[in-house]
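LOG
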Amino acid sequence: MFKPSVWLLFLSHIVSIYGFGFRGFHYENPRELEINNTSRHIITEKWILQPLNHFDIRDNRLWSMRYYENDEFYNGTGPILIMLGGEWAITRGFLRSGLMFDIGKTHGAMMYYTEHRYYGKSRPVSDTEPENLQFLNVDQALADIAYFIEKKKFELDKFNESVIVFGGSYSGNMAAWSRLKYPHLIQGALASSAPVHAKADFFEYYEVVSDSLRKYNEQCMKDVKSAIDTVELLLSHNDGAKVLQKSFNLCDTPNITSTSDIGWIMNSIAEIFASTVQYNSIESNGKSSIANLCHKMMNSNIGNPFQRLSIIIKNFKCIDWNYKNFVTEYSNTSWNLKQITMRLWIYQTCTEYGYYQTSSNINSTFGTLFPLEFFIQMCTDLYGNYYSALLLDASVKRTNVMYGGPLPDLNRVIFTNGNVDPWHALSIIEDTNGQTPVILINGSSHTADLYTDLPTDIEELTKARQRIRLIINEWITLGKKI
């Protein structure tokens, strides 16, 4: 059967272009863009010992955190630039190309790319049983960064050089929050597409998705809604569920008595459009991802809107959209789980952020069948009864109290967002204190500013990168700690 972890090849293509990101439950792990560089400099994989628990000096357990280092341009007096890894396995990509690389080359910087605890090869515990996941949180991850910086400054014998951190998506949060929590170690941060406002019921996500489709073409949004309405109608009775199975080539007939099964199917369909909007880019035919998907959804030559949707979804192998199969697969606590990244990230959403992209808005284009309760049940099914609505509510409140929510008191942090990106709804899009540069890029999407300029980039994106370079250049030139 066609497992959820490998379904819909175009989704994996989209995610392979951009290396950051919150993803839906069917997205493949993000793979960073690897660009052949004329330099033959070897970027080395290294390891550093970290405390398992930074906040209990009686706990002397250590583990090895992975990072990459590029000293190709380091001149002995340049700044230290660090790309922060998030919920993915790091590669050498952002030490070979991209915005940070360009800035580092200009300023003779020492450049690093750190891997977030529990992700990639940075495995501090024996397995991912819920009790072993207690050290998977942003508090510990930020302390990892602080210890890393202290160690590297000691090794370089450079205690007064500026440190600038970069991050996108969740690691964009980390970039901003590391500056907030450790300003004596970090002199500036770029937080790209960073949803620093934790929110359990993130219904606004699909509002932005709908708006982005509507901005491209009103008819596209209408046809998507028509197709979704038909799917919901089919899921209201057994005969309709059988039609759905045949139309989408599902491995099993949907269980219409299970709200989790229904929610899983509707969420899966919605993610097709969400991922296209979130990672919108120019494709090989010169058109945007949104344009190409909408072209299929508006093509009346291939049937009604539901039939068009089925053509987009249907594959020669059956698609496993069975909720129980998902829970069984993702309950595997071994590091050998193919989609271990998603087991770990879902845990963080259950215990810190929420970020659940629900259908709670009554005017939702994508129906009403994956409300907040669907995601809370997922937390319980994957990790146990302790991971409940009460825990989620307390966790989200704690994150916002600890780090400022929608109003963090920051300076020397650049917040960049594309207005096409659904995550900008939880980020900082207005400068509230005069010291936090905010760049909202019209027509751009998720973390696009972190990459190297391309001929296909829109003018607003190119200008945004120019402004970012100017600001960071000023920070480096001043070389002052605050």
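LOG (cont.) second protein
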Amino acid sequence: MLLTLLPIRPASACALALSGLLGCSAAQAYLVGIGVGTRALYLQVGTGTFTGTYSGGGTPGDNSTINTVTATVAAGAIGSGAQTMSTNSTVTNSPYDNFAFCTPASGQVYVGGFYRTPGTAANATLSVATPLNLLNASSDTIPFSTISWVSGGAQDASATIPSGTFAGGTTQTLLSVARNNWFESCLTFSYANAQLAPAGTFTGRATYQLVAP
């Protein structure tokens, strides 16, 4: 996460760096069963690599891109209330079936993937880990818990990944994924902007993981 607070005349900004870790889910809440196959986990947070689509027999790949979400707060508005964050992610379509699912122009970040395994197995777990605070160059802090998200997606009647707030300084469980399922959501982040803070660029990173037993 990145949070930038500038002197009184310029604007201030807040941004969140998002990264997904790759280990080795139809338009309600988007959780859909997939066929049994070779054991595999795939997680995409923002930009990812997928050749073709999963439903069309495509294959996932590694991608080291770390996207950001950013809110710019005018100096006179610091502490005045929540600010929706924009993103540099450009992911619109689902790698499951190429459906236009997210709207990055309105700040939505794609988060999705699958857990596949033959036989019986316990559920996989999607989690996110964050440090306690965002920091600037002067070691001033803003709590990570000032960042929250709303989960959605085109034609979703209910969210797959629940909406929530970063706890900061811990790992939070977001979703339990049963074997042979694909899941996905579009997350829109907000900075609470409920406190006064010194000028500077505050940074921090939220790291998402999908882990199976």
